[in-house]
Each structure stands twice: as structure tokens, then as C-alpha cells.
């Protein structure tokens, strides 16, 4: 179970909490033992992040690439990106009608670089996340699609905000969708509060939700602090980020992975 602030109050496996209540806040067991060089490389990937090309001025920066996993062969493979004259390579991202900011709109985001695709920590997170969803019956007989987002909310102006999309409680992709979020780095920021609520709260801000429908509130603060949601069971949200009291740029860097079975297209 989790307390109202999202803290883990019983040592149940991640899978049990994810299946039982539709969300879990946790730290991967390898968070404190992974090689420093792998973490440093992953963190450095956020240093030169391009601005979100669909939301210039939002102080949101991102990269995105995709993998496919074959559970019957334990085989993981990156899906080829598309050459792009501006970003070098891009990957397609589509949320159907789940994002009110981009309903039915296909977007193309700058892709992860080749070196990062080989990062042992990132690949370990991918495989660990896949392991948490293999209990779902549709994951056993379909290729599994994994979308890997690197998202940084970053502000250098004390009067500015960095905003996620959508800026409301939402779901990401339907009944068989799982979303995992892993904090990589955070510096001199306030905000960035995660809120988990019931599914009926989609489209509302946390302030518009009756207290009994808010299931958890928490902030990810340490490297690899994580949470996961089963999309059909809950809605989720992260509040805007602004600079803290120091002089440094305020930033919050997160790896987000969406995992779902690939459906037939013919």
C-alpha cells in the first residue's frame, strides 16, 4: 500500500502494488549499485536537449525513441528512427485522443543518440520496467512497444514556468498502457509535484478534484526515484516547475517510458 503522500508503507513487490492499486512509487533495487559512469552518461544526455518543437516557449526539452520487445524470445531492439535535416533523426509519437493539447496529432521528436541507446543503466531500466508488466495477459502474445522519452523542465528566469503536456490530470494510452517515470537529476526548482487520482479526474487540475479522489501526492527528489501507473486504473499529473531560491537554473530531468502491447495493423 501507499500513504496519501505516495510513500511506500509496506515492502510489497512493485508488481503487486501496480496490479493491486494501479500505481506505485518506488526506487529500483539497483539504484545505488549501478556503475557511476552509466549514470553520468545518462545525466549528461539532458545537457544539450533540444526544445520541444511543438511547444516553443514552454521551457520543455525532450528526446524520444522507441523499442520493441519480443517476450517469447527475450529480444529487445531499437526501432529505426527517421533522418531529419534539423535534428539528425526523429521518432514518431502519437497519443490518439489522450492528450487534449494534441488530439489525434502525430508528432516527431528528436531521437536519442546512438551512444545513449547503448547505455547500460537505460537498458536496465527498460528491461526492469518490462518485467513489471509481463503479468498482463496481452503482453504474453504480442510484441511489446516501449517509448522512451527524455524530458527536461528547465527555467532560467525566476518569473517563468516550465510546463508538462497536458497540464492536467490525464491518461497516456488506454487499458493496456503502463507508464514509468524515473528521475535522473533535479536542481534548484520548486513545483514538480506528482499527483495520482482516480480515472474520472481526467481533464481536471488537482485543485478541481475532491480530496477523496486524490490517491497520492509526492515529489521525486533523488536520482532514480520512480513511479509507475497502469493507465486504465488511475490518472496522473505533474505540476509546473519554476526556479528555487538559488541562482542556478531550475531543472527537473526525467526518463519516462510508455509500455504497451503492439496491436494488429492489418
Automatic annotation (TrEMBL):
It holds the Pfam family 2OG-Fe_Oxy_2. It comes from the Bacteria. InterPro entries: 2OG-Fe_dioxygenase. GO terms for molecular function: dioxygenase activity. This is 2-oxoglutarate-Fe(II)-dependent oxygenase superfamily protein. It comes from Amycolatopsis sulphurea.
Amino acid at each position: 500500500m501507499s500513504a496519501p503522500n505516495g510513500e511506500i508503507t509496506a515492502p510489497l513487490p512493485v508488481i503487486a502494488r501496480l496490479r493491486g492499486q494501479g500505481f506505485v512509487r518506488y526506487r529500483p533495487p539497483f539504484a545505488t549499485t549501478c556503475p557511476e559512469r552509466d549514470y553520468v552518461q545518462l545525466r549528461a544526455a539532458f545537457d544539450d536537449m533540444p526544445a520541444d518543437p511543438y511547444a516553443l516557449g514552454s521551457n520543455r526539452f525532450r528526446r524520444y525513441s522507441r523499442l520493441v520487445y519480443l517476450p517469447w524470445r527475450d529480444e529487445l531492439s531499437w526501432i529505426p528512427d527517421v533522418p531529419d535535416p534539423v535534428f539528425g533523426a526523429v521518432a514518431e509519437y502519437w497519443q490518439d485522443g489522450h492528450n487534449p493539447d494534441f488530439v489525434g496529432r502525430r508528432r516527431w521528436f528528436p531521437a536519442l543518440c546512438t551512444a545513449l541507446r547503448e547505455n547500460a543503466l537505460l537498458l536496465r531500466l527498460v528491461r526492469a520496467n518490462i518485467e513489471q508488466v509481463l503479468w498482463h495477459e496481452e503482453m504474453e502474445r504480442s510484441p511489446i512497444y516501449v517509448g522512451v522519452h527524455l524530458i527536461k523542465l528547465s527555467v532560467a528566469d525566476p518569473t517563468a514556468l516550465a510546463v508538462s503536456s497536458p497540464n492536467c490530470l490525464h491518461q497516456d494510452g488506454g487499458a493496456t498502457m503502463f507508464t514509468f517515470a524515473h528521475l535522473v537529476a533535479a536542481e534548484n526548482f520548486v513545483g514538480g509535484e506528482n499527483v495520482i487520482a482516480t480515472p474520472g479526474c481526467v481533464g481536471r487540475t488537482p485543485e478541481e478534484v475532491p480530496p477523496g479522489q486524490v490517491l497520492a501526492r509526492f515529489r521525486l527528489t533523488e536520482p532514480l526515484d520512480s513511479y509507475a501507473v497502469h493507465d486504465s486504473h488511475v490518472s496522473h499529473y505533474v505540476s509546473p516547475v519554476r526556479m528555487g531560491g538559488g541562482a542556478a537554473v531550475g531543472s527537473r530531468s526525467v526518463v519516462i517510458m510508455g509500455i504497451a502491447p503492439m496491436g494488429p495493423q492489418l
